[in-house]
Each structure stands twice: as structure tokens, then as C-alpha cells.
Amino acid sequence: MDKESQQYLKNIKFKIFVLGIIIVGCQELHERRIVSAESDFNLIRDFADFQKKMNGLDTIMFWMDLSGCAYHYGERLTVTKSEDSIIIVNEYIEGLDSGSKWINKSRTLVAVNDSIWDFGNFLSRNSNRLSIENKEFGTLVMYYKSDKLPFFTNGLGDKNRFIVDYYKTMFRVDSIYKDYILQELEIIEEKPFKKESF
Description:
It is a single chain. This protein is of the alpha+beta class. The chain has 2 domains: 1-37; 43-179, no CATH class. It contains 5 helices and 6 strands, in the order H-H-H-E-E-E-E-H-E-E-H. The protein has a 6-stranded antiparallel β-sheet with strand order 4-3-2-1-5-6, with no helix packed on it. Strand 3 and strand 4 (103-111) form a beta hairpin. The N and C termini lie far apart (125 Å).
């Protein structure tokens, strides 16, 4: 081989070597970023501000019991984050028998800084319904990983007020809820029955 060919091969080998180092270095940097990216979301601390506090690694689920009397109906919201948007996947189920299946209702994208949906404000408004110690199933249950936060109602009238508030909040991002918003009626608190003797 002449000197020019040898020099040419040396240059190609050197370029391949440098390219290999760059690829390996980039791969290690990428792996370090994946390992170091973790969530500091805490369900109890951040439940009302979840839209801003969650990151792309977090998935938050809500299960809402919308049943009344003999009618069984539930909704499940799966909330994830993608850069500057929140993705809400809404599913519903009718009936509680073993053959009931979750049916996709809608998929909605809202901005992280959105003030229209404002589901966090709905949760804050109803924080008096929270019971951290009670691990039973509430009317609304918020899930994050293995943690859950149940919201409870007290009686049918209270549950209906809670459902109306939920529907009004959901209507802000999905017009399908306009059909579900119940006629708001004044609910008169029951008084103890007075037994009269004859």
C-alpha cells in the first residue's frame, strides 16, 4: 500500500474510533438521565395540586361511584402527563356483575396550567370528605401507585350533591356531561320522626 492509502485508512479508523466514543458517551448520558428521573409526587401532600406536581412518570387514577339506588354506574379517570399537557382517559362501567366491562368514554388533553377543568379545586372543595385512616372504598377514590385516598359521602342527598359537583367539573372539559347534570333541588334535611300516642 502506498502512503496515501495508509493515511486514508488511518483517518477512517480514527473517525470510527471518535464516533464510537461519542455514541457510547451519549448512551451512558441517556441511561443516567433515565435512572435519575424519578417522581417526588406524594398523594396525601399533592392531591389537590396533582396537575402541576405530577411528572411524565406518574399515573393517577380516580374511581367515582355514580350509583344510585338499584342503578350501578362507575367512572374511572386515568390521568397522565406529557410535557405541558395532562391526558385524561375516561372510562365507565354499568353494573357490577362479573360480565361488566370498562368502556372507553373519552380522551381529553388539557394544558398543565389549565384553569378550566380545575379538578384540583374540586378535590380541595371536597377535602372535608377525605378519610386517610379509613381504607374502605369511598364515593371517589384517588389512586397513585399503591396509595389511595378515599372521599366519602353521608347519605343519598349528600352523595347527589357530590355527584352534581363532579359532573359540573367534568363538563368543563367534556360536553357529554351536560346530559348528566342533575336538576339541582333543595334537599331538606330530615328531622327525627316524632311518635304520637293515640
